UniProtKB/TrEMBL annotation:
<feature type="domain" description="OB-fold nucleic acid binding">
    <location>
        <begin position="31"/>
        <end position="122"/>
    </location>
</feature>
<dbReference type="Pfam" id="PF13742">
    <property type="entry name" value="tRNA_anti_2"/>
</dbReference>
<comment type="function">
    <text>Bidirectionally degrades single-stranded DNA into large acid-insoluble oligonucleotides, which are then degraded further into small acid-soluble oligonucleotides.</text>
</comment>
<protein>
    <recommendedName>
        <fullName>Exodeoxyribonuclease 7 large subunit</fullName>
        <ecNumber>3.1.11.6</ecNumber>
    </recommendedName>
</protein>
<dbReference type="GO" id="GO:0009318">
    <property type="term" value="C:exodeoxyribonuclease VII complex"/>
</dbReference>
<dbReference type="InterPro" id="IPR003753">
    <property type="entry name" value="Exonuc_VII_L"/>
</dbReference>
<keyword id="KW-0540">Nuclease</keyword>
<dbReference type="GO" id="GO:0003676">
    <property type="term" value="F:nucleic acid binding"/>
</dbReference>
<comment type="subunit">
    <text>Heterooligomer composed of large and small subunits.</text>
</comment>
<dbReference type="GO" id="GO:0008855">
    <property type="term" value="F:exodeoxyribonuclease VII activity"/>
</dbReference>
<dbReference type="InterPro" id="IPR025824">
    <property type="entry name" value="OB-fold_nuc-bd_dom"/>
</dbReference>
<dbReference type="Pfam" id="PF02601">
    <property type="entry name" value="Exonuc_VII_L"/>
</dbReference>
<keyword id="KW-0963">Cytoplasm</keyword>
<comment type="similarity">
    <text>Belongs to the XseA family.</text>
</comment>
<dbReference type="GO" id="GO:0005737">
    <property type="term" value="C:cytoplasm"/>
</dbReference>
<feature type="region of interest" description="Disordered">
    <location>
        <begin position="1"/>
        <end position="25"/>
    </location>
</feature>
<dbReference type="InterPro" id="IPR020579">
    <property type="entry name" value="Exonuc_VII_lsu_C"/>
</dbReference>
Amino acid sequence: MTVFEASPANGGTPPADAVAPRDSTADAPTSVARLNGTIRDFVARWNTVWVEGEITSWNVRGGNVFGRLKDTQSDAQISIRIWSSVRGRIPADLGIGDHVVAAVKADYFVKAGDFSFTVSSMKHVGLGDQLERLEKLRAQLRQEGLFDESRKQPLPFLPHVIGLITGERSDAEKDVHRNAELRWPQVRFRTEYAAVQGDRCVPETLAALRRLDADPDVDVIIIARGGGDPQTLLGFSDERLVRAVAAASTPVVSAIGHENDHPILDDVADLRASTPTDAAKRVVPDVGEQRALIGQLRARATSRLTQRISHDIAQLEQLRSRPVLRSPEPIIADRAQELWLLLSRGRDTVARHLDAASRKTSELRASLRALSPAATLARGYAIVHLDGGVILRDAADAPAGTALTITVNRGSLAARSDGEIAEST
């Protein structure tokens, strides 16, 4: 950077014995006054610029304003001064959290070595421009599926511990606690306080959300604040916050503002409550209603059970009144007589079948005996066998010397053929 020398023309009055900053060495250093004067003269050459940011500090002293502007997309900040002569030309309702554009000129105060920007004009950023940017972000998140009902988690029926993110000692905190405890006196809260507007809103809310989401005892998280103008609710449409809520493993309820307020957090949360009071009613069941419901279910179950028992008793009495059950002895006697007749008939049938089968068996036995070789042998015939048990049927098959076995009715004889063939008569 070019280092300019302070001169009487620009108000610089460096000591006569001070070395110029550009000529300074360890043995011949420049003075603080001459260095500051050089810096002031260099900064004075800068032109006025228009800058956009969020007011994070606004202190009025002696009619003048000393504050800070923060970049809306990062942590970069600048100090600003608004002299009393300028305050009458800017909106009177400006304050912390407002999104503004300002005409600023750099200024360096030699005595304190303080660098800041002097404001010559300041106005609110057009709400229409901000809403247009928010609508573009809303459309992008919707296209990514962050608003889909399918990805939203159901709320527990009766949460053991409710995580609450809200402003300290705020009406929203009181509303949530009062209405939840009226519905279920034993309800427990784990509250994390965070700024609900201004530059601390998003980082503090994110930190609180991370702590509660990491707590295994917390079953549901409510982010609550009272109503406000669109400017003060901008933090709850911040992309960092809405993406963190979408990624949370614990169900998150958005209870920001009133019925007509609609930050992007409402769309990405698992449940949107119109007010902090509505959030308490949606998250915590009414103990009186639940007891009444249990009483109704119990009465209905008792009635149904009584009807069923009465119906079954009536059916049993009807069955018992029938003759067959009132006096079963005649039926048993009739059945006994019928059973005896059937048994007698069965015995007769089996006996006849056995006699017929015995006669048939005797006839078959006689036929077998008549056809048996033993009967033929008994009449004086014999059977001649060759070696190996072959029956001899032709004399030519037994030449002289052939060993024979002759079987008669009673026993067998060994013989040998002489080879002669006798004439048959």
